[in-house]
Amino acid sequence: MDYQRAQEIIASPQEFEVTYNGVSVWIDKLANEKTATVHLRRSLEERSEVDIAELKEAKTLQ
């Protein structure tokens, strides 16, 4: 994923499925143009800073 698309996903009222290493995550915020803070969709406590390029958009959730 690129920085621009990550910004669009965060700003959108629509929910998108994003994965990191095959695991569904929620993008909390963009730290800079290269990294984002994410958490697992099932666990709000565990947050990680990851490379935006490693995030994948899977599909739009209804």
Automatic annotation (TrEMBL):
<dbReference type="InterPro" id="IPR012610">
    <property type="entry name" value="SASP_SspH"/>
</dbReference>
<comment type="similarity">
    <text>Belongs to the SspH family.</text>
</comment>
<dbReference type="Pfam" id="PF08141">
    <property type="entry name" value="SspH"/>
</dbReference>
<dbReference type="GO" id="GO:0042601">
    <property type="term" value="C:endospore-forming forespore"/>
</dbReference>
<protein>
    <submittedName>
        <fullName>Spore protein</fullName>
    </submittedName>
</protein>
<dbReference type="GO" id="GO:0030435">
    <property type="term" value="P:sporulation resulting in formation of a cellular spore"/>
</dbReference>
<dbReference type="GO" id="GO:0030436">
    <property type="term" value="P:asexual sporulation"/>
</dbReference>
<keyword id="KW-0749">Sporulation</keyword>
